[in-house]
Prior knowledge:
Layout: H1 4-8, E1 17-20, H2 29-44, H3 52-70, H4 75-87, H5 91-104, H6 110-113, H7 116-126, E2 131-136, H8 141-147, E3 153-156, H9 170-179, E4 186-190, H10 193-203, E5 206-209
Parallel strand pairs: 1-2, 1-4, 2-3, 4-5
Helix pairs in contact: 3-4, 3-5, 4-5
Amino acid sequence: MVNLSKLLQLNWQQYQVIIFDVDGTLYDLSKMHRLMRREFLRYYVRRPWRCYELVVIYYFRINRERLAREGAREIAHKQYAIVAKKFGLSVEQVKKIIEYWMEIRPLEYLADCAYPEVKALIENIFQTETRIVYYSDYYPLNKISRLGLPYHYWFDSSAATIDALKPAAGGLEYIMKTLAVTASDCLLIGDRYDKEGLAAQKVGMDYLILD
């Protein structure tokens, strides 16, 4: 359960923009992982010859964390190309595996993993003049839509317009420039200090890490 008390204590009116992380902030990521492990078991026990895909997924996640720490660029290509080279696969093969298991399949479980308190709060804020923004290291629109969340803008840090995974400051800088606001106008809400917290600190933006 997300710690809603932190959210309720905030004075929303002091901010023009509230920026929400997606994974782990809008829904229970631990619960999602448990459900997806069950899906893996069901799928691969019937297709043991494809179990190498689990290693591909694991390495993709580990490698992406490394790219984030290094502040790498050309993320959209490198995140797949490095994995493809390691396992002797094509970029398209890796992309197909990752997109299915990390973007498409989890959508089925989002409603079960959603934090209803956060959704209610976002809906309330959306009725005010404060703008709601979603900022993720993965393409977020499908998840936002499946969760039924209102929004004004969304941003993907791996897109060419940003090309900088958290905790790099490039994404928040791009958001502020696009929305014509300053750091003091914004609040970033996330679930990881080493991602959202550090990114916000780099640009002098207020942030809140949900427990």
